[in-house]
Write a structure and sequence with these properties.
The radius of gyration is 24 Å and the shape is elongated. It is of the alpha/beta class. The strands form five sheets. The chain has an eight-stranded parallel barrel, surrounded by five helices. Strands 19-18-10-1-20 form a five-stranded mixed β-sheet. β3, α4 and β4 form a beta-alpha-beta unit. α1 packs across α3 and α10 crosses α11. It has two domains: 208 residues, Alpha-Beta Barrel (TIM Barrel), CATH 3.20.20.10; 129 residues, Lyase, Ornithine Decarboxylase, Chain A, domain 1 (Beta Barrel), CATH 2.40.37.10.
Length: 361
């Protein structure tokens, strides 16, 4: 089967979004662009190449991701926000990669295993996410003391992760209050950061001197600022079948035609990231109209109802994510139906099975 699926990343929109965020935070606040998980599925290489010289830091989840990033950009500071593989701290020290430390034992390991190199440290504080980070002021003080007395470590910064967004702003405020008890112990030249996309665009008083936008960079954070979606996914119709009233459609016969129908076959399925739970429960866009999914989504194809959509032929374009006329399909639309995060929706689409394209316009 010829690949008809297109995964189009607009790097110009990513750049515009970063510049919008930069204007919001001002020139005294650094930006750490989060490019973990292959830049939210957009392709780390393309995104990093686009943002080199535009941001102050890149944020990743692991040493493996940091290594991939350093192939593209050898200069911009990189921060590993997750637990670091301590066996690779020498590589981190050699490549200007900052690591996250959550406990005293990790510092002891670094001190005893790193001899002729210097590693930059960001201390994580657990203020309510309960994932990683110091949750004791006493242990935090000892960590600062250990680093400042070390000849192989430099205390570069301190951060926390917020556990919630608009659904519970009071919890965000409480986390920030806890965080302030820790950051007042840090040296004055430290990089202090806690602002994710939501906080960056809604809580200016929480900026400190660096913010960590992720979802907003790719244009999918709901806010008052004009952010531009970075991704469009499209396919095209490869077959149209006339189905009679009473006939079933697709595997397991989960849909029975209530009337005579025109059913189009689109070569994108759950192997490409179109979640099977959307079967009989969602739609794609054709000619600026909604075409309902009928029958179970297959591994490689999906069937859509085009009965009442005019001028639909084999070869007609199908929008899976993005705008078509006055209609728009976003990760939030998928997430609402699937009861999941729009982040997961983006990451499930598999660009390795599609025609991956970069546009800069």
């Amino acid at each position: 089967m010829i690949n008809k699926n297109n995964y189009i990343v607009n790097t110009a929109n990513i750049l515009k979004n970063v510049r919008t965020i930069s204007k919001v935070v001002g020139d005294k606040v650094k930006i750490c662009a989060i490019v973990k998980a292959d830049a939210y599925g957009m392709g780390m290489t393309s995104v990093v190449q686009t943002l080199k010289g535009e941001v102050d830091y890149f944020g990743v989840a692991s040493v493996v991701e940091a290594m991939a990033l350093r192939v593209v950009d050898k200069i911009t500071p990189v921060l590993i926000l997750g637990e670091v593989n301590l066996d690779l701290i020498e590589w981190c020290a050699d490549n200007s990669v900052r690591v996250t430390i959550s406990n005293l034992e990790e510092l002891d390991y670094i001190q005893s295993h790193l001899h002729d190199k210097v590693l930059r440290i960001h201390l994580a504080v657990n203020t309510g996410l309960n994932r990683i980070g110091f949750r004791s002021i006493v242990a935090f003080r000892r960590a600062i003391d250990k680093i400042q007395k070390s000849n192989v470590m430099i205390l570069d910064g301190c951060f926390t992760h917020f556990a919630t967004k608009a659904n519970d702003e009071k919890f965000i405020e409480n986390q920030h209050k806890k965080f302030e008890n820790y950051i007042k112990l840090m040296p004055n030249d430290s990089i202090i950061h806690d602002a994710n996309s939501y906080v960056t665009l809604n809580y200016k008083s929480f900026y400190h001197n660096m913010v960590r936008p992720g979802f907003a960079i790719y244009g999918y954070h709901k806010c008052d600022y004009k952010l531009l979606p970075a991704l469009k996914i499209s396919s095209e119709i490869i077959n149209i079948t006339n189905v009679r009233s009473g006939e079933s459609i697709g595997y397991d016969r989960t849909y029975v035609a209530p009337h005579n129908m025109r059913v189009a076959v689109v070569p994108i399925g759950y192997a490409d990231g179109l979640d099977r739970r959307l079967s009989n429960n969602f739609y794609l866009l054709v000619n600026g109209r909604r075409a309902n999914i009928v029958g179970n989504i297959c591994m490689d194809v999906v069937l859509i109802d085009v009965t009442y959509i005019p001028y639909v032929y084999v070869g007609s374009k199908v929008t899976v994510l993005g705008a078509d006329g006055d209609e728009l399909l976003t990760p939030y639309d998928y997430a609402n139906v699937l009861s999941t995060s729009p982040y997961e929706v983006l990451l499930k689409f598999n660009h390795k099975r599609m025609n991956y394209k970069i546009v800069s316009e």
